[in-house]
Amino acid sequence: MNDERAFIDTNVIVYAYDRDAARKHDIARDLLIRLWNSGGGVISAQILQEFFVTVTKKIEIPLPASSAREIIEDFLTWDVVANDGETVLEAIDWQAREKLFFWDALVIAAAIKGGAEILYSEDLSDGRKFGNLIVRNPFAS
Question: Residue 96 belongs to what domain range?
Answer without folding.
Answer: 6-136
